[in-house]
Amino acid sequence: xxxxxxxxxxxxxxxxxxxxxxxxxxxxxxxxxxxxxxxxxxxxxxxxxxxxxxxxxxxxxxxxxxxxxxxxxxxxxxxxxxxxxxxxxxxxxxxxxxxxxxxxxxxxxxxxxxxxxxxxxxxxxxxxxxxxxxxxxxxxxxxxxxxxxxxxxxxxxxxxxxxxxxxxxxxxxxxxxxxxxxxxxxxxxxxxxxxxxxxxxxxxxxxxxxxxxxxxxxxxxxxxxxxxxxxxxxxxxxxxxxxxxxxxxxxxxxxxxxxxxxxxxxxxxxxxxxxxxxxxxxxxxxxxxxxxxxxxxxxxxxxxxxxxxxxxxxxxxxxxxxxxxxxxxxxxxxxxxxxxxxxxxxxxxxxxxxxxxxxxxxxxxxxxxxxxxxxxxxxxxxxxxxxxxxxxxxxxxxxxx
Length: 401
Ligand SMILES: Cc1ncc(COP(=O)(O)O)c(C=O)c1O
Known about the structure:
The chain has 401 residues and is an alpha/beta fold. Helix content is 41%, strand content 14%.
């Protein structure tokens, strides 16, 4: 007899972007020429001084368990970063380090969400928010946000979504997958609604803050709305800014009373993040920052390349993302068309399957992010691959009738 699987886990599927990347890897292993633009990680090497700091820490003997919520040195460095870059004041006991930003989100949700609790999640959203809330027994209240409002939630929509059961409003700027960035004014426009509902906590995920384009400056939610600092959890990490996804270091900053409970949750999950990973993150935050700008410029060039090539594909419309490294394009005009094999494209999922089958390009369908009729293409890949992938997408679209 098969071992019983808990209902809470049965409620969530394997993440669609993980599934898409897995399928691409399998096809590659079968010898197919696949360009996988489905996963979200920078393709650059981690800066050399960061790697050196980790090696030195290991040799110094920093190979033991650390404090569950992260070393004091790293928590102080995070406080320093938040003050320097975001103008925010936090004390080390208001900060915790986790195994990636994802675990920081997970800790916050499992520490707070129970059956019946709701989390307001503007769509398109990063898949993890919806799934972790569901896993914890809560109900995601997905608020569709259209291209017309820049894929951002408006005060009116927020007001309609809030109920007495709302525990969280989850904001992500720059957004994965849409690249949308909230301006100071857009954040401040949400403030009167949040003021009227003091039971709503805010999670703000600023993981992509350094990957922003067109000369924009990142604005942290709390810098825009300091009155909500005592009911906001800020999520960030080193994964994207320093190309350190595999080191698995992220962090949360929030009220000490909640951080304490999040550390308790983490204590029974991992006993704390990796010691050498933390030494690496410390070097990333406190060392030279030129890598961040070099990477940002590369992403901006790739964005321009990809958006322009996608807009030349028949039936595809792609807005310029303001940040992050994803193109979130509409394929709505292609729904109802037929492939050369005579199959009908009935949905965004059919379209992304068609791209993979016919041209070997792996991207993720928009419905996975709560916005059907779209797809997400990660431009965290070499220019040559991006050009080849976009040419193939153009060919695939031209072949639809
Ligand atoms: C919006 C967003 N937040 C958080 C994370 C988590 O990052 P980490 O790799 O540090 O867990 C990701 C990763 O894809 C992300 O896209």
